């Protein structure tokens, strides 16, 4: 039993239901290498995955290596990523990442949390995304969706992402950390929205302690479901 009062068995039942609801769950950022995922995740701050995926083909083609990022002209890099917002800060972070990777890691993305969070513009969430999706190292990436859904489900009472991560690690088998993170993110994007969650169209309706925060009538709730959308 966790500090929030939920049991491992209860969480397992919810995870199973989410897995049935979203059988095609995956990371929704497009990438083919750890460096590409790292860049894409940095860009995803305050930006949709859809927009990031529109920008990254050009970014990846122009800056395919840490060396090319390190030697980039900042103004040119800014223009490439401008559509993602906060482009000046993000460009400075990407260039700094390239420089640090070249200086400290032989141009390769490290596969440890400690090394990743030491890179410019890389927080714990970004590091965990890279570890879990690019390296296959079990990790729980607590973004705004995970934090919101985990609290609504009663998996945690915390608001600090690090504490939420700790609580979820205690409830979920390590081998499932990455997949469960994605399942919860998908659910948060498609049904359990910050405003007006689609409660009446939710597979967890009968077991969710927050049922009723959104419309409970199935016909009303179904209009809130964002099926197939990658927000």
Description of the molecule:
There is one protein chain. With about 230 residues, the chain is mostly helical. The chain has two domains: about 100 residues, Orthogonal Bundle (Endonuclease Iii, domain 2); about 100 residues, Endonuclease III, domain 1 (Orthogonal Bundle), CATH 1.10.340.30. Helices cover about 55% and strands about 0% of the residues. The protein has twelve helices and no strands. The relative contact order is 0.13. The mean pLDDT is about 95.
Question: Which helices and strands occur, and which strands form pairs?
Answer:
Blueprint: H1 8-21, H2 34-43, H3 49-62, H4 66-70, H5 74-81, H6 87-104, H7 113-117, H8 124-134, H9 144-152, H10 161-171, H11 177-190, H12 218-222
Largest sheet: none
Tell me which CATH architecture of the largest domain applies here: Orthogonal Bundle
Tell me how many strands there are: 0
In terms of DSSP E residues, the strand content is under 5%
Cα Rg: 19 Å
The level of helicity is: 40-55%
Classify the fold: give the CATH topology of the largest domain: Endonuclease Iii, domain 2
Q: Write out the CATH superfamily name of the largest domain.
A: Helix-hairpin-Helix base-excision DNA repair enzymes (C-terminal)
Number of domains: 2
Structural class: mainly alpha
Secondary-structure element series:
HHHHHHHHHHHH
Identify the CATH class of the largest domain.
Mainly Alpha
Mean pLDDT: 96
Shape: globular
Helical element count?
A: 12
Give the termini separation: 34 Å
Oligomer: single chain
């Amino acid at each position: 039993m966790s500090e929030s009062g939920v049991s491992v068995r209860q969480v397992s039942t919810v995870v199973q239901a989410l897995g049935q609801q979203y059988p095609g769950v995956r990371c929704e950022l497009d990438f083919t290498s750890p460096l590409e995922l790292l860049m894409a995740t940095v860009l995803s701050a305050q930006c949709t995955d859809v927009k990031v995926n529109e920008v990254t083909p050009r970014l990846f083609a122009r800056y395919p290596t840490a060396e090319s990022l390190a030697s980039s002209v900042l103004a040119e890099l800014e223009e490439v990523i401008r559509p993602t917002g906060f482009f000046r800060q993000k460009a400075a972070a990407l260039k700094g990442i390239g420089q640090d990777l070249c200086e400290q890691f032989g141009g390769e993305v490290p596969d440890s949390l400690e090394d990743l969070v030491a890179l410019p513009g890389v927080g714990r969430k970004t590091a965990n995304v890279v570890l879990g999706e690019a390296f296959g190292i079990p990790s729980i990436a607590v973004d705004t969706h995970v934090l919101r859904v985990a609290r609504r489900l009663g998996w945690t009472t915390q608001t600090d992402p690090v504490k939420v991560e700790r609580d979820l690690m205690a409830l979920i088998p390590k081998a499932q950390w990455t997949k469960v993170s994605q399942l919860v993110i998908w659910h948060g994007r498609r049904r359990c929205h910050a405003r007006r969650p689609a409660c009446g169209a939710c597979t967890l309706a009968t077991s969710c302690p927050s049922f009723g925060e959104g419309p409970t009538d199935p016909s009303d709730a179904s209009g809130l479901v964002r099926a197939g959308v990658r927000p």
